[in-house]
Design brief:
CATH class of the largest domain: Alpha Beta
CATH superfamily of the largest domain: NAD(P)-binding Rossmann-like Domain
CATH architecture of the largest domain: 3-Layer(aba) Sandwich
Bound molecules: NADP nicotinamide-adenine-dinucleotide phosphate
Strand content: 5-15%
Structural class: alpha/beta
Keywords: Amino-acid biosynthesis, Cytoplasm, NADP, Oxidoreductase, Proline biosynthesis
Number of strands: 8
Function: Catalyzes the reduction of 1-pyrroline-5-carboxylate (PCA) to L-proline.
EC number: 1.5.1.2
Number of helices: 12
Organism: Streptomyces fructofermentans
Radius of gyration: 21 Å
Enzyme class: oxidoreductase
Shape: elongated
Distance between the termini: 36 Å
Largest sheet: 8 strands, mixed
């Protein structure tokens, strides 16, 4: 039997997921999308060949519903959907900071809910998506969510209690690397390089380091030691990073992001 999947509220993340699913082999005919604006629905149909429908129709006819509206729009969307979703349908939330209990309280009893926190590299099929089961989601439901989000990158199962920590690490993670690239490019300008050259040097170094971290199986300390020769240039730079408390700043920054995620989640409980 063909499984129909609907993406409700198909914005940036929803469209990234949709296009990844099509590249991974899902048939556009089995994918339904909903959008708030008719021109957005038309655009999705023209770009991907998927079928735009209303929220209520998606709720009635899809086997799996992926909700990708902004967190502040989720309550309104659920009010609209609740009367139409049969309790055996899998509901996957892609919204940051909304606990599965928020959905379970508003949907039919025993509706399986899976919460996923992805990140923007979903746009280039390099996402890190963190997946947690609600009270009624089974291993099969989790596997289905993994199959869907696996189309745009890696997936990892965690207990829902760890979602706030994961939001701080991987949800916001790309932003920290963008920030580092920005700061290092500024340093390149200070050292007399033109901005475009400094940018290219840093971006390629970031890509090279990321691939080594992923593929070498080596600990980051070992990889760093390999470029830190006695009395060399790198150790001078590392001393300055330590003097300026960069490691402590990163730990404090991620703790602050985790705390903010908790705060947002408690506002949605
Ligand atoms: N972007 C990120 O970095 C990121 C990372 C991880 C997770 N997320 C999560 O992913 C979700 C989507 O984020 P996004 O950046 O993709 O936002 P987005 O581009 O604003 O997408 C949300 C879409 O939902 C539409 N929408 C809102 N209410 C609707 C309704 N009742 N019925 C149908 N469509 C509706 C919006 O329509 P309009 O175009 O008319 O506003 C918009 O196109 C959020 O919950 C966010 O927490 C985002």
């Amino acid at each position: 039997m063909t499984q129909k999947v609907a993406v409700l509220g198909t914005g940036k993340i929803g469209e990234a997921l949709l296009s990844g699913m099509i590249r991974a082999g899902w048939a556009p005919a089995d994918l339904l999308v909903t959008a708030r604006r008719p021109e957005r629905a038309r655009e999705l149909h023209e770009r991907h060949g998927v079928t735009p429908v209303g929220n209520a129709e998606a709720a009635k006819s899809a086997d799996t519903l992926i909700l990708t509206v902004k967190p502040q729009d989720m309550g309104t969307l659920l009010d609209e959907l609740a009367p139409h979703i049969p309790a055996d349908r899998l509901v996957i939330s892609g919204a940051a900071g909304i606990p599965t209990s928020f959905f379970e309280e508003r949907l039919a009893r025993r509706t399986p809910v899976v919460r996923v926190m992805t990140n923007t590299p979903a746009l280039v099929d390099e996402a890190m998506s963190v997946i947690s089961a609600g009270s009624h989601a089974t291993a099969e439901h989790l596997a289905h969510a993994e199959e869907i989000f696996g189309a745009v990158g890696k997936t990892l199962r965690v207990p829902e209690s760890q979602q706030d920590a994961c939001t701080a690490l991987s949800g916001s993670g790309p932003a920290y690397f963008f920030y580092l690239v920005e700061a290092m490019t500024d340093a390149g300008i200070l050292l007399g390089l033109p901005r475009d050259k400094a940018h290219e040097l840093i971006v390629q170094s970031a890509i090279g380091a990321a691939v080594m971290l992923r593929d070498s199986g080596e600990h980051p300390v070992k990889l760093r030691e390999n470029v830190t020769s006695p009395a060399g240039t790198t150790i001078n730079a590392i001393r300055e990073l330590e003097n300026h408390g960069v490691r402590a700043a990163l730990i404090a920054a991620l703790e602050a992001a985790r705390d903010r995620s908790r705060e947002l989640a408690s506002g949605n409980s």
